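Predicting holo structure, 2'-monophosphoadenosine-5'-diphosphate bound.
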Amino acid sequence: MSGPKAFVVGWPIAHSRSPLIHGTWLKQLGLLGSYEKIAVPPDAFPAFIAGLRQAGFAGGNVTIPHKQAAAALCGQLTATAQRLGAVNTLWFEGDVLTGDNTDGAGFLGALDQDVPDWDKRRRDLAIVLGAGGAARAIADALLTRGFSRLIIANRTLERADALVRDIRDARCEASGFLGAQAALPRADFLVNTTSAGMRGQPPLDFAIDDLPEHAVVDDIVYVPRDTPLLRAASARGLRTVGGLGMLLHQAAPGFEHWFGVLPKVTPELRAIVEADIEADLEARR
Ligand code: ATR
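Done. Tokens:
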């Protein structure tokens, strides 16, 4: 017996941390099963999906650039995946390939774990920096958790406009970075969903001096762990959430679908993944 088989598919996929995360959970929980990474180029993706059952997979994760194509190839989607038009988690319900998008749930799971009382406080205004797929999932998650107003601010205003049109919720408005800066004194929450601040990328050009003292600052970038944005927020004494928690929490629902147990995001798991990231950074120095 070798247990259920799962995968993460992307193009490229070499640097995915998902095998480490799921492999650690399998080991910690003493479960039989496997989780492998598979590189599939876009033109071969439909055939890959069509062959999943035949290959004996219980399901898997989907990452860049296949999340939207995967949504189109599923037999059914969760309500969240339908709203987002993108899927990161696949499993079979009977014979029906089913897709969910757990990025928003992962984002909320990390926030709930790291700042447990965040949604007991004022939730008048959240500012989301960026307008890509991650911004879409996070804006959706913040709306489900009761923010009365959301500013989606992007370096390129047109993309923020397009995202707000797509979300179709009167609580959302689009802005450039300057507009978001002007709204900072009224903001309760700020999240960076852009790749700025990531290793090898320029730092985010966005000063947070005008945020009120109760504001929470979240950065979904997890390499490095302390991005310039999070450092600036900590220096001001604001509460912060880093991106590693989102990566770990978004993985949990898939694991439960394939292997039958909802795994926990423990300090031990965080330490294992952090050590792996550190080793990678060290190797590149
Ligand atoms: P994903 O789907 O992973 O969220 P994406 O679609 O590649 O990412 O979008 C990347 C986001 O990061 C965009 O909002 C991009 O802004 P633009 O639309 O103006 O390009 C943002 N981004 C990337 N580098 C940035 C930088 N140095 N400063 C500000 N925003 C940046």
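The chain has two domains: 5-101+248-284, 105-242.
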